[in-house]
Specification:
Elements: E1 4-9, H1 15-27, E2 32-35, H2 45-55, E3 60-63, H3 73-86, E4 93-95, H4 100-103, H5 112-127, E5 130-133, E6 136-139, E7 149-153, H6 156-165, E8 168-171, H7 177-193, E9 202-211, H8 215-221, H9 223-234, H10 248-257, H11 271-278, H12 282-289, E10 290-293, H13 295-308, E11 312-316, H14 322-332
Helix pairs in contact: 1-2, 1-14, 2-3, 3-5, 5-6, 6-7, 7-13, 9-10, 9-11, 9-12
Length: 338
């Protein structure tokens, strides 16, 4: 069964570790290397991606994801086109409504009508070098290629919008077979509404990942990542998101108490890590959003996901020893899918 894998990380200290990971991924069986965009918590994403571009030759690279609130579309178009030129045409552009980059500035995530306007503007800047955006004419005169645009999406409306407009979608709704099949259906519906062939849409699933011979320790280390997935996937509405009725109040509580200033920060005593235990959501969120366990357990879960239709997996490596994790993935997990 053919499955593609990517790595999604953060430009944290020491950044040299991520460059080592990028080079390992490029020389291994990975298809994508991406970085989050969160100016308040991590290093500047496009500078970091330029360094990744220089260290790699094969993988796709890009932000996963930027947003329309902290970056004007002309700035984004110029930045990613520069990375694309350095990388020899390997860049992709991930866009979402905004998480820690936005909330740490006291803002709220973008509405879907803003997302639509932003994506359309970017596509026209890449192809026509000029467009109308928020009532003004804007220009980026020099890009040579239309960089593929991927939208981060969780709910039915955002998944349909991605199917209508984008080259691909980064799906954060979850990894259970029911959720996977429903997400695919929503993306395909959007594509058909826009007169597109659904097969044209490159669908990736965001997967919080920690593979270890000690599954319980891996689960403990990943609690803050599970909280981040829940907060992001469920923050606007639970409608159409397959949350069991008996867990609705607990999910609402994790949204209320989530600390954006600690978004995806490691540490057993971090507020977001403790939330998962306090609310009794650890096992549910791990099954819903994560690939956590021994290599054999993770291989089995990947096969179940692939059978449901999730065959492109963007693995987030939010652990203390990232290099060890990527080596374990390469040698003991990805080897089963070559």
């Amino acid at each position: 069964m053919a499955v593609r894998f990517g790595i999604v990380g953060l430009a944290s200290s020491p950044f040299s570790d991520f460059l080592t990971l990028a080079k390992m991924a490029d020389e291994g069986s990975f298809a994508l290397v991406a970085l989050g965009d969160s100016q308040s918590l991590y290093r500047e994403v496009y500078v970091s991606l330029a360094l990744v571009a220089l260290k790699t030759r094969n993988v796709l690279i890009g932000p996963m994801v930027t947003n329309p609130l902290t970056r004007h579309p002309a700035i984004t178009a110029s930045a990613i086109a520069t990375v694309d030129e350095i990388a020899g045409g390997r860049a992709v552009l991930g866009i979402g409504t905004g998480d820690s980059a936005v909330y740490n500035l006291g803002l709220r995530g973008a509405r879907l009508d803003h997302m639509r306007e932003y994506i359309v503007a970017l596509k026209e800047l890449f192809t026509r070098h000029e467009t109308q955006y928020q009532g003004r004419t804007i220009r980026v005169t020099w890009p040579q290629r239309r960089v593929p645009i991927y939208m981060s999406a969780e709910g039915p409306k955002s998944l349909r919008l991605a199917g209508q407009l984008c080259d691909g979608v980064m799906i954060g709704l979850g990894l259970t077979p029911e959720v996977i099949r429903d997400a695919i259906s929503c993306v395909h519906q959007g594509a058909r509404e826009a007169g597109r062939d659904p097969k044209e849409i490159d669908m990736w699933w965001l997967v919080k990942t920690n593979v270890s011979n000690d599954p319980q320790q891996a689960l403990e280390e990943s609690r803050m990542a599970l909280a981040a997935s829940a907060n992001h996937a469920f923050r606007f509405t639970l409608e159409g998101k397959h949350v069991p009725p008996e867990l609705v109040d607990k999910v609402e509580e994790i949204k209320r108490r989530y600390v954006s200033a600690e978004h995806e920060k490691l540490g057993a005593e971090r507020t977001n890590a403790r939330l998962v235990d306090d609310l009794g959501l650890k096992e549910y969120l791990a099954e819903r959003f994560a690939l956590i366990g021994t290599p054999d357990q993770c291989v089995a879960k990947i096969r179940r996901m692939a059978e449901a239709g999730a065959t492109n997996l963007a693995l987030t490596v939010l652990v203390a020893d990232k290099i060890k994790l990527v080596k374990t993935l390469r040698d003991r997990v990805l080897s089963h899918f070559r």
